[in-house]
Write a structure and sequence with these properties.
- The structure is a single chain.
- By secondary structure, this protein is mainly α.
- It has one domain.
- 94% of the residues lie in helices and 0% in strands.
């Protein structure tokens, strides 16, 4: 091998060593940045997990408050209706029944109307409680859907990450083979 070829070979080896050192530094920097990011994510996850009892308590309080409010609304409404019915019955029922008994019969009786009205009020209260129950069930169903969506997203992200890592490895191998082939060609060409 001539002195000129020996110098080129030494320069090429020196260049390859420098490239390798730079690649190693970049690799270490990337690994350090990714490890720091993983640490930040871990801290964020731990903070979020510590918040779960507070969120659970808030959901429980919401449910208890909505159930209690529904009960209070129904009770207040029923009490007011009871007062209205008693007032109407005591003042007007005897008078109207005397008039109606002679012409309309029992089906138009104020007592009958009052009983039907009381049933209507009871049905409204029952419907309000059932609607509250439906809202709570809807909230829980949506929470289950969100939980499933998060699980699917996690699985899909893992799969995309695996695909990307494989593509990067393939690219790395192709680039390495190309550099090797190029280096071999340069060495062969210079001889």
């Amino acid at each position: 091998m001539s002195k000129k070829e020996n110098v080129k070979e030494t320069e090429f080896t020196s260049y390859n060593n420098e490239v390798s050192e730079n690649q190693e530094q970049v690799k270490q920097s990337v690994n350090k940045a990714i490890d720091q990011t993983k640490g930040n994510i871990q801290r964020t996850v731990e903070e979020a997990k510590r918040e779960i009892p507070r969120f659970t308590q808030a959901v429980n309080q919401y449910q208890e408050q909505s159930i209690q409010a529904t009960k209070d609304i129904a009770d207040s409404y029923l009490e007011s209706q009871k007062e209205i019915i008693h007032s109407l019955q005591s003042a007007w029922v005897p008078f109207i029944e005397n008039i109606q008994s002679s012409s309309w019969g029992y089906f138009a009786s104020p007592r009958r109307v009052t009983e039907n009205y009381a049933r209507l009020v009871s049905n409204i209260a029952d419907s309000t409680i059932a609607a509250s129950r439906l809202v709570n069930n809807t909230v829980f169903a949506n929470m289950e859907v969100f939980k499933a969506a998060v699980q699917h997203t996690r699985d899909n992200v893992k799969e995309f990450s695996r695909i990307n890592a494989n593509a990067a490895k393939t690219f790395e191998n192709v680039a390495r083979d190309s550099v090797r082939d190029f280096s071999t060609g340069v060495t062969t060409y210079t001889k």
